[in-house]
Specification:
With about 950 residues, this protein is an alpha+beta fold. Helix content is about 20%, strand content about 20%. Helix 8 (about 500-515) crosses helix 10 (about 580-600). One of its GO terms (cellular component) is membrane.
């Protein structure tokens, strides 16, 4: 190609046109011309069909050279083809990420970017290899000054060339905060004008880290940040790989990744380990049943990464931003964050192991609350009981069959005409009596509330709306009028939970209803917030907030799709900025109201979530389906939310929508017994799926699974204590840092560090394949407990050592740690008194200066251990107490399965139970639960 030529000119025919000499030559020339035109048309059509495109409306860019485009510098030359050709496909950063557009050469070059169709050998993911990508040297910011501060460094970034998005911010302020030895914070802000920042409390550092585990390098031209781990030299963050964008409604930051092993980035339905092959994850809270490649109920811009090199080290990254965003993963490996508002405020957590990364993240957003003890029990619900008497009958059937149940729920059908803070005076007339009966049996009651408040009741006839109008608690249009959407009760207004006045109004409503129906906890649903109309009943104004220059890949293509107008006014900011925070703020208002009203720990389950959610509520994984795949993907969802600091999480056992089947429900109950939060729930017009609704064999299997869960309550409660005080997970992945084979496992999981669960996830099978990492594992189904009400099972390691802990309090008092109303006992095997039993040595267990022994055989007992006194909670369902790393009652099943032990050794805890165990191919019983010493 000749220098200075338009690339497209070189593709034109170079032969000169000759004058025609006859009619024949004229016809031949005309025919040739027609063939040429047809050929060009065919090529353009093929190119059009093959060019990458997506599915969201797009506003076309202005012509090159007009204000706000890359040509704003007076017509900068297009990138040289040689420069474009050296960029590997895996490192192409998308210059044209808008969906719904066929990216042509003309559109791409209008942005001064490279245009090269992807090779046929490339393996496209959701979006495929970008054909339009940034060339080397694409204009970005320059670091023009930097200085040291008491807490780190500050600097000034300047850009002279405008981008193709409007309202570039050409001068930026950079702040690096060396907050702790394992936490770095970076803030990039507009020094001339304040911008929206997420209103959640984060730690404020007062001194610079003295011995940071990271080093920071700053690139001047183009500006970039490179963060390395000092111990290994591993690059954790390198933002020089692509240009930085900082416009009013488009902020983009790209970085290399340390490996392909990326977790987190909720809420999405996917495998636990994310696919990085051109996979874009969109965050903008949305009411939609869990679906792949779709933005779901919550937004969590945090990831955990395992690093390459076999070191087992991990780090984390958190972008504190609540605006709609795309997170693009590519096989470089690399990541690109595209958000349409706020600031760039991000943290890097150095770990060095996964548990430490999660703990460091939760130090920023807040440790999860300690749940009330009964929250660990079995919860039963459905949409469509139809009456309080029908609900009551299900509870009685559960009691008759001896199936443990701590909590009964009702869906929206308990309400009078779907109005919040009411109950149907006809169909649910006996609801107060049913709740009284539940309480007399040591059980609890939870009902559902939606945020939408009916706006069409007669004046004076519906206190929540009348009083809300009087206090001004509802979200408004920009003209000050109340925004009206549509949900279950019809036309509705939406409370603004960013306003403290709304919190007080919410408390008053809850208190008034509690005086009629003494509920024990809240289920807050539809709080993305969801509306059946886009924006409002009168539409939304045509503004930049409603139609930003870039719209992430949200379902529906519009920010207002099935929610409120983005331009709607809340006290803190516009809904454009606050949308994904709605569920968090409602959960906070609900938890605070319950604590104030009941004087006990609050139980709240929320559908929509955001970072710091775990401080106020748990989460269920939404409106799943009665499919085997949904059961499998629930494990990834459970593990991801534990990583995100919301450990009280689970899926609707047996599935919510569509008809379940007996085998699926049995298997799902076996799995659900090991969710941190276990609830069976299904939709209206579906057949009942509570345990008594099935055959005696299925009912028995479900009962045994739930009894097993109850026997493990002391372990589970202690794990929640560790989550509350140290930021640990309750359910955690089988992610052993130095065993790369565990990095992608999401068909097994752990409770804590020692109890591994391998559920059956496929129909019609009598075996399941599992992986046991290196170590000594014991089969829980062969544990011997000697029939005592309180016992300790210690599974010794190969060197004869073992240890564990137990946290115990009254299960409901707020702040028992602060008031010193608890027992926390640490157990250690200090002496083996007998070594005659094989394969496990029998032993006594000492704790401190005391010896743990059962004091009596009744269900009420206390245990003195060292300086602590252990008193079990009085619950309606009897259970055994576990101190250490595991106890169980075996499930009585005859189904066998094979177990792959990897490098581990699996041993039974006793020899009286007949089964054969091998490392490799063997026979065990599902659910397979084992413990690692």
């Amino acid at each position: 190609m000749e220098e200075g030529k338009d690339p497209e000119e070189t593709e034109r025919p170079l032969l000169p046109r000759r004058p025609s000499c006859s009619a024949t030559t004229a016809l031949i020339s005309l025919g040739s011309l027609l063939l040429l035109v047809c050929g060009l048309w065919l090529l353009v059509t093929i190119f059009w069909l093959q060019a990458p495109s997506n599915s969201v409306p797009h506003r076309a860019p202005p012509p090159r050279g007009s204000p706000g485009t890359g040509g704003g510098d007076g017509g900068r030359a297009l990138p040289e083809p040689q420069a474009c050709g050296v960029v590997p496909e895996a490192w192409r950063f998308d210059c044209y990420p808008e969906r719904g557009v066929v990216v042509t050469r003309e559109l791409c070059e209008a942005r001064n970017c490279c245009f090269i169709p992807a090779s046929s050998s490339s393996a496209p993911g959701r979006n495929g290899v970008p054909w339009c990508f940034y060339p080397p040297g694409f204009p970005s910011y320059s670091l023009v000054s930097v200085k040291a501060t008491e807490l780190g460094q500050t600097g000034t970034l300047v850009k002279t060339v405008k981008t193709y998005y409007p309202k570039d911010i050409l001068t930026l302020h950079l702040e690096l905060l060396y907050e702790t030895d394992h936490r770095l914070r970076v803030r990039i802000t507009d020094p001339s004008e304040s911008r929206f920042e997420v209103p959640i409390a984060v730690p404020k550092t007062t001194e610079k880290a003295s011995s940071p585990a990271y080093s920071v390098e700053l690139s001047n031209e183009p500006f970039g940040i490179i963060v390395k781990r000092t111990s290994t030299g591993a690059v954790l963050l390198n933002t020089t790989v692509a240009p930085l964008f900082y416009c009013d409604q488009f902020l983009q930051l790209s970085s290399s990744l340390s490996s392909q092993y990326i977790y987190g980035l909720g809420e999405h339905r996917s495998s636990f380990l994310h696919d990085i092959h051109w996979n874009t994850l969109t965050m903008w809270a949305r009411d939609v049943p869990p679906t792949e490649l779709t933005n779901l109920y919550g937004a969590h811009p945090f990831y955990l990464a395992m690093e390459e090199g076999g070191t087992g080290t991990a780090h984390g990254f958190f972008l504190l931003n609540s605006n709609a965003m795309d997170v693009a993963l590519q096989p470089g490996p690399a990541i690109t964050w595209r958000t349409i508002g706020g600031i760039l405020d991000f943290y890097v957590f150095l770990g060095p192991d996964p548990a430490s990364v999660i703990g460091q993240y939760l130090e920023v957003v807040g440790y999860p609350t300690m749940p009330v003890y009964w929250a660990l029990g079995y919860h039963l619900c459905r949409w469509g009981y139809g009456s309080s008497n029908a609900t009551w009958d299900v509870v009685k059937n559960m009691r008759n069959y001896g199936i443990p149940q701590d909590v009964q729920w009702n869906d929206i059908d308990y309400m009078d005409r779907s109005l919040d803070f009411t109950f149907d005076p006809a169909a649910f007339s006996t609801l107060p009596d049913m709740v009284k009966d539940l309480h007399s049996h040591g059980q609890r009651y939870v009902m559902m509330l939606d945020p939408g408040i009916s706006s069409v009741q007669p004046e004076g006839g519906y206190w929540p709306y009348d009083e809300g109008l009087r206090r001004g608690v509802f979200i408004n249009h920009t003209d000050g009028s109340t925004l009206i959407g549509k949900v279950w009760p019809g036309l509705t207004a939406f409370p603004d939970f960013s306003d403290d006045v709304t919190h007080e109004w919410w408390y008053d409503n809850l208190k008034r209803f509690h005086d009629k129906v003494p509920f024990d906890g809240l289920w807050i649903d539809m709080n993305e917030p969801s509306s059946f109309v886009d924006g409002s009943t009168v539409g939304c104004p045509d503004t930049e907030l409603e139609n930003p220059p870039y719209t992430p890949g949200i379902l529906g293509g519009l920010l207002r799709a099935k929610t409120l107008c983005a331009s709607a006014v809340q006290k803190t900011s516009s809904h454009y900025n606050m949308h994904s925070l709605y569920g968090l703020l409602e959960a906070k208002a609900s938890a605070c109201a319950l604590k104030r009203m009941l004087g006990k720990r609050a139980f709240v389950i929320s559908r929509s979530t955001f970072p710091s959610q775990g401080q106020y509520s748990g989460h269920w994984l939404g409106d799943n389906r009665s499919h085997w795949k949904d059961m499998y993907t629930s494990i990834a969802g459970m593990l991801t939310f534990n990583l995100l600091g919301v450990p009280l999480v689970g899926a609707d056992v047996c599935g919510f929508s569509e008809q379940t089947e007996e085998e699926l429900c049995v298997r799902w109950t076996q799995l659900g017994a090991f969710y941190p939060f276990t609830r069976n729930h299904n939709a209206i017009d579906q057949k009942p799926q509570d345990p008594p609704a099935f055959s005696p064999l299925a009912r028995s299997a479900m009962k045994q699974s739930l009894l097993l869960r109850y026997s493990l309550f002391p372990l589970l409660y202690t794990l929640f204590h560790r989550a509350h005080t140290h930021g640990h997970t309750v359910a955690r992945p089988l992610l052993f840092p130095k065993d790369v084979r565990t990095y992608g496992i999401d068909r097994q999981f752990l409770w804590g560090k020692s109890l591994i669960v391998t559920p059956v996830l496929d129909p019609g099978v009598d075996f399941v394949v599992g992986y046991f990492p290196q170590g000594l594992w014991y089969d829980y189904y062969t544990v011997r407990t000697h029939g005592q009400p309180l016992h300790l099972v210690s599974s010794l390691s190969e060197d004869g050592s073992a240890g564990g802990e137990l946290f115990w309090d009254d299960g409901e008092t707020i702040d028992t740690l602060e008031t010193d109303q608890y027992a926390h006992i640490v157990f250690t095997v200090v002496k083996v008194r007998s070594d005659h039993y094989r394969p496990v040595r029998s032993h006594s267990v000492h704790c401190g200066e005391g010896t743990l022994r059962p004091l009596q055989t009744s269900t009420s007992h206390s245990v003195h251990c060292g300086e602590g006194t252990l008193r079990p909670l009085q619950t309606s369902t009897s259970h055994s107490v576990h101190c250490g790393e595991g106890t169980l009652r075996p499930l009585q099943t005859s189904t066998s399965h094979s177990v792959h032990c990897g490098e581990g050794t699996l041993r039974p805890l006793q020899t009286s139970t007949s089964h054969s165990v091998h490392c490799g191919e063997g026979t065990l019983r599902p659910l397979q639960t084992s413990t690692l010493t």
